[in-house]
Amino acid sequence: MQVIGIDIGFGFTKIISGSNYLMFKSVIGDALEVQFKDQFVAAQDQESFFQVDLNGRSYFVGSIAEQQSSTRHYTMDQERFVAKFAQPLALAALARMANGADPIKIVTGLPIRYLQKQKKIMRKLLSGRHTLLCTDQNESEREVILDIDDVRVIPQPFGSVFGLLLNDHGGGADTRLLKQKVGVIDIGFCTTDYTISDRTRYIERGSATSEMGIAKAFRRIADELNDKCRVDIELFRLYEAVHHGSIRIFGKSIDITELTNNAFQSLAADIANEIQELWADEWDLDSVLITGGGGAVLAPYLESLLAGEINAIGGNDDARLNNVLGYWRYGKNQWDRTSANSSDS
User: Fold this and answer.
1) Half-sphere exposure of residue 199, counting CA atoms within 13 Å on the CB side?
2) What is the CATH classification number for the domain harbouring 333?
3) What range does the domain containing 83 cover?
4) Closest of 282, 319, 306, 338 to residue 159, by C-alpha
């Protein structure tokens, strides 16, 4: 049995099993035969080359799709994302992570607004036996059979709660959360989830999904660059530019530091206003946790706008892994420890 956590996000797909993890942009494209293969392969490492054949279609996945596919598929619509993108992204990741023919048990998450409506759909898309043909950078092909016998779908931000509460064996780690009422702000690419964990119990009243994801700030940046340079920049191509504070357009380097700061400040103010309204009656929160890839970026802007004890979740090499780490640890708690207890009885 393999326990695997997978977070299929609008921005990035993340997968964890034990000490192994993988992350790539949630972009798929039609696979092409690339000419000048030697030069092309030299510029690629093994981890960035994803080509999978699934359900009669051949896909490039991740950065290779961004770079090479003439037709790229990308969406910020939740229903379309689950219906068209979740399965190929998840199975491509699992084809890299799965070990042999052992049955696979998965924990994943959905935004709170869509959990009730889409969790059965997600289980159906991922459960069962799947056969993929995977092609590596040297054109070697291998058939991968994935036998997924259980899929748990939990509220997305609870991944970060379980990541703190549990250790890598599925046992208790941070016992404070067992006794505290904590607000969680999970800022993703397209959405932000707000939820409350009251002694680890999910509280519906203080939970919601907002369209205030980091993409809103990226859209503002892209619009201003379009006004200035007459270039329509796809949002997923702004990650590196925002990280470095500059972007090259037609050979000219453009400083976007001030533009980025203004966009993030505006987004943080919008999120703070939503929180103050949603949690108006939650004055007894012990602390507020900020998580998610967008959370790592916005935390410095949000801290001065929120009351109480504010903690940005760290501890990982990349904050985008906070939720998926918790998914995996929750799976270890549910399945590995259950199996161990059954064996002892």
Assistant:
1) 1
2) 3.30.420.40
3) 2-155+323-344
4) 319
Q: In a 10 Å sphere around its CB, with 0-12 CB exposed, 13-18 middle and 19+ buried, how is residue 118 labelled? A: buried
Backbone angles phi, psi at 226, to 5 degrees: -65, -45
- Are 18 and 76 contained in the same domain? yes
pTM: 0.88
pLDDT at 153: 97
pLDDT tens digit string along 215-239? 999 999 999 999 999 999 988 889 8
Q: Which amino acid is at 199?
A: R
Residues 110 and 227 in one domain: no
Q: In this structure, what token pair is assigned to residue 142?
A: 């291998």
- pLDDT tens by residue, 232-277: 998 888 988 999 999 999 999 999 999 999 999 999 999 999 999 9
- 257 and 210, same structural domain? yes
Report whether 156 contacts 315 (CB < 8 A).
no
Confidence band, pLDDT 50/70/90 cuts, at residue 193: very high
Q: What is the rounded CA–CA span in Å between residue 203 and residue 282?
A: 11
Burial of 166 (0-12, 13-18, 19+ CB in 10 A): buried
Q: Give the C-alpha separation, 79 to 335, whole Å.
A: 30
* Region label for 18, one of left (φ > 0), alpha (ψ between -120 and 50) or beta (otherwise): left
Would you state the pLDDT for residue 316?
55
**Residue 330: which H helix or E strand, with range?**
helix 322-331
Q: How many structural domains compose the chain?
A: 2
Q: Measured on CA atoms in the order 247, 253, 258, 259, is the torsion positive or negative?
A: negative
The per-residue pLDDT for range 98-132, each reduced to its tens digit, is: 877 789 999 999 999 999 999 999 999 999 999 99
> 51 with 135: CB under 8 angstroms?
yes
Sheet with 287-291, edge to edge strand ranges: 201-210, 192-198, 181-187, 287-291, 310-312
- Nearest of 223, 214, 268, 216 to residue 243 by alpha carbon: 214
Residue with tokens 């039609």: 30
